[in-house]
């Protein structure tokens, strides 16, 4: 089921602070789906972008483990820019929202927790097709 762009929210990740360093904990109460795939982006060249697609069903949770980057979310009409730069906060991205990642700082690492395994049929990689999809779904 596709969701509105406002359903994409920053979620505070519980952490234990200690003089030896912090420990962030992601358990089933933190994100509203069972994780089926984990991947991460790193060594992104300066000026490069990632993403540039939407998902029909997949939900994702993005965390800036190191450094920072911007996530641009679009629903076909509204656009939101969210900067991720704190490993104790993650961005929940719901299905039916276009996403682009850009402005990666040097050494940035983006961890992605996904609700399903890779499925090419779930991707919408053309923005005009995405807008048609949104109109067809009336969302």
Sum up the structure in keywords:
five-stranded antiparallel sheet, 12 strands, 1 helix, mainly beta, Jelly Rolls, QdtA_cupin_dom, RmlC-like_jellyroll, 8% helix, FdtA/QdtA family cupin domain-containing protein, RmlC_Cupin_sf, 139 residues, globular
Short description:
The chain is mainly β and 139 residues long. It is built from one helix and twelve strands. 8% of the residues lie in helices and 41% in strands.
Assign the CATH topology.
Answer: Jelly Rolls
Q: What is the end-to-end distance? A: 10 Å
Shape: globular
Look at the helices and sheets and give the structural class.
Answer: mainly beta
- The total count of helices amounts to 1
CATH class membership: Mainly Beta
The counted number of beta strands is: 12
Q: How would you sum up the major sheet?
A: 5 strands, antiparallel
The portion of residues assigned to helices is under 10%
Using only C-alpha atoms, the radius of gyration works out to 15 Å
Strand content: 35-45%
What name goes with the CATH superfamily?
A: Jelly Rolls
Q: Please write the string of helix (H) and strand (E) elements.
A: EEEEEEEEEEEEH
Oligomer: single chain
Quote the average pLDDT.
Answer: 94
CATH architecture annotation:
Sandwich
Give the total of domains.
1
Q: Which regions have little confidence, pLDDT < 50, spanning 5+ residues? A: none
Q: For the largest sheet, list the strands in their spatial order.
A: 1-9-6-11-4
Pfam family, one: FdtA
Protein name: FdtA/QdtA family cupin domain-containing protein
Domain Sugar 3,4-ketoisomerase QdtA cupin: 7-134
InterPro entries: QdtA_cupin_dom, RmlC-like_jellyroll, RmlC_Cupin_sf
């Amino acid at each position: 089921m596709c969701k509105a762009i406002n359903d994409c929210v920053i979620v505070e990740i519980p952490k234990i602070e200690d003089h030896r360093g912090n420990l962030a904990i992601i358990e089933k109460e933190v994100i509203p789906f069972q994780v089926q795939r984990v991947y991460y982006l790193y060594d992104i060249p300066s000026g490069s972008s990632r993403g540039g697609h939407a998902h029909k069903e997949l939900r994702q949770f993005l965390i800036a483990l190191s450094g920072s980057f911007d996530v641009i979310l679009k629903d076909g009409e509204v656009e939101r820019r969210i900067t991720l730069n704190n490993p104790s906060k993650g961005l929940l991205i719901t299905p039916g929202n276009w996403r682009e990642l850009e402005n990666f700082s040097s050494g940035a690492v983006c961890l992605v927790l996904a609700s399903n395994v890779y499925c090419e049929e779930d991707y919408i990689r053309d923005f005009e097709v995405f807008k048609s999809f949104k109109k067809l779904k009336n969302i």
